[in-house]
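Bench log, entry 3. Co-assembly request; chain sequences pasted below exactly as received.
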Amino acid sequence: MLTVKNWPPKGGVINVGGGVFAEAMKEQGAEVYEVKWQPPAHGKVELIDILDKLQGRDDIDEANQKAIERFSSAKPVLIDIGIAREVVPGFDDRMLLHAGPPITWDKMSGPLRGAVIGAILYEGWADSPEEAEEIASKGDIQYSPCHEHSAVGPMAGVVSPRMPVFILENTTHGNRSYCTLNEGLGKVLRYGAYSDEVLDRLRWMETVLAPIVKEAIELSGGIDLTSMIAQALHMGDEVHNRNRAGTSLLIRALVPYLIQVDYPQADIKRCLEFINSNDHFFLNLSMPAVKAMLEAAHGVPKSSIVTIMARNGTEFGIKVSGLGNQWFTGPAQIVKGLYFPGRSEEDGNPDIGDSAITETSGVGGFAMADAIPIVQFVGGTPEDAIRFSEKMYSITTTESKHFNIPILNFRGTPTGIDIRKVVETGILPQINTGIAHKDPGVGQVGAGLVNPPWECFEKAIVAFGKKYANGS
Amino acid sequence: MFKRLVIRPNSYYDSIALMRLTQTVRNIDKMVAAQVGMATELNKDAVREMGFVGEELKAATANDLIVALVAETEDALDKGEQVIKENLERPTRQEPGTKEPKAYATLSEAAAMDGAGIAAISVPGEYAARETRAALANGLHVFLFSDNVSLEDEVALKKLGQENGLFVMGPDCGTAVVGGLGLGFANKVRPGKIGIVAASGTGMQQVMTIIDMLGEGISEAIGTGGRDLSMEVGGITSKMGLAVLERDPNTAVKVLISKPPHPDVRESLIKMLDEGTKPAVVCFMGEDIKEADKRRSGKVLYAGDLEEAAILAYQSAGGDSKGRLYSDDELSEMVKAIVARGDSRGYFRGLYGGGTLCQETMTLLSRMGIDVYSNIAWDRRLLLEDPEESRGNACIDMGDDYFTQGKPHPMLEPGMRVPRYLAEAGRKDVGILLFDVILGYGCHSDPAGIMAEAVKEARRIRKDMGQGLVQIAVIVGTMRDPQGLEEQEAILRDAGAIVLSSNRAAGDLVAGLIKAQGGKKPCLR
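Structure output for the full assembly:
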């Protein structure tokens, strides 16, 4: 009846709340585990009620383990390049894919509108930007999120029917993912630029770059991207905002085959120069690679793991494994970071692009401790980079089996964002990202850090509670 | 008048830090009012009372920080914002290479490290039950400092703890000493043979410090929270505590301190103590010792006040049969000397930080036939209508909710009493002022220094009025406390206060002084 266990208690003290008491205990020489407490669920009673019904649930934990298992066992391999209209599932003749959750023309921000105009011109559906804008706004173009076609696109993420796309296959589960080829920096379609220079480059990519690289990929017999990402992380990339190592590794993998393809030497040379001059070429492979892995983890009933985080420049949307195809959205945020000379936050467009798929998978901002060279983007120190990564373990389910962080004693990257943990702790996923100019056609103006809006997770936990709170 | 409202979204800070900061900002020159706090409904109301309105304020949540400032000049507003910025941002800035201690996002995350056996919880009351449940689910004992936990939750949590063999000390538990470690507001006492179970933090501190002064020490001190001996809770934690002390090889004497318990609970506790093998001392504050109790097994001794509880425990543990800390002769000499100076003419006013000490003084004086008004009086006739307005002889518990809404507790910030102290000093009909100074871990780093300034200022005020004033400080502490007992005593003596280390003795002194004036009774309503 009055038995008392472990008394006097051995070990240290967990302090939850007042820092004064933590200090007082430390002063006495005690081992103190400090909880940086804040009100759960932003102090919202109705959310706390839902959380209480979802926590400590073996069925949900098991579902999450299952989703993680599918994610970890996925093996994305670059197998081919194809034409979007022909290979991307569900593509239509007058359809444009875009980044982020669904959106209509009237709600699109500058860079996305610019990219849509550029894509219409590129497809030859209009002869002038004005005409393109008219077509774009009149509703005879179908806009659809990349993510609903197993595709991903950085920044505006616009994919038009004629564009060449990388084809990746998850050789474990058989699902495929798609992404365009990266155009480089400066004035590019994904930042909403649509000048002749942009369109000429796209045409060259379609007619020269894509066929040459396609043949090299075919000759190679497929390129394993899991191990390439793992290596890039050990070379200073987090494969979102830094892709210099990944691009180098890709070139190393391609060159033995590029020299064998049956194309003019000058074209091959230009292709190599193009890839070599663009540190971000690999981004358009890291993204679909982790997309293929996450898509395998989607659709596990009762799993509270986030499988998509994506932004369209107006809204941020997430999807959750156990909640089917429903998007949970909130306003896209302004990016805090380093602006190029002469640019400021006033020039920046709200957060845009599907590239947050990298963070969803546990790399990108989650692997910031791997990419110490770019921590200065946010005016931070190497310690900050480590802290960014460490913080993410509080909202994730497990540690990656494939991707790890040497400076954290080769700890696997934080993997499997659990909406329950995000709502409980109030800690939002940390995303590294580029910043687009708010006006179409200007391009990149900086890079920095951003979080999803809290609303996404609040809406998701409410929906999750509705569906699973009673154990059904 | 200049006003400024700043809301910082998603920036949580603990309330103690913010209350201290608010106090600092209020002290800025030309600052009229300041509130730095999380956007709880309570704090939002406080900010609205300062005259702020708007959608932004309405939409702010408990995770958003509100800074509301009203000042006579724009400069003061800037200064205030700057102080807040420096204060809040300081801990996150660090030199490269320095290692910040690891912080965990949740209790469960910290518990997963498998290094702790107990959780100390001091989050706002509305979240405290949830955190306690998480601690118990992780197999941890709980020291629950938070107050404003419902009785229903308290019962459920304590039952859950009991089923799992885990302590729930609290809610509203101020002090404990567990395995030699002081939790909450805790004095550094020597290890020894006396174990304490107490429903009152300052009561426990007073008993511990006197035991320490006598030369004995503490084995374990288990706090229970003020409602443990109610009918609803049934003394779950107290009984677990007494059982632990009964089995503990280091404990020779058990001490139980509480307000008068519910009769059924009282009976079962006394039975438990009677059936135990070790001597026990009980002090049910404010209860008259029953003749029937005195005739029981003889294992249980009954103390009428905290000092007596400490002395009886000390004697039961084999200490010599010392009398009181201050003898009757000593105290009457003091009374004579003061009366001869003519300093003590007028009413007595006590301003306490420790609620139990306040209660004890009222009980002592009432036993001597002196009625004392208070904001926490049980006797409705003696309850002050307005806690801000003293009358007759009065004892004010400045740690009561009325005074601590959005303000720091006087144990953390003894200076919050100073304006009231000086107001009392300025009244012609007041002749005796009393205050407590509580030392120990978690308390203010120099409470005597703060109060000494008030003592000096009060003397100046009285000099201008051409009247004397007796100022008495009760100091609760030990030589090993971080503030240092002797140093703190010296600071107060130098300022002109009479310093005593027992609240009981202070009560006796005050009673002597009042009686010397002819036992003037306040007229009752």
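Chain B touches chain A through 69 residues (CB under 8 Å). Residues 193 and 250 of chain B are 6 Å apart (CA to CA).
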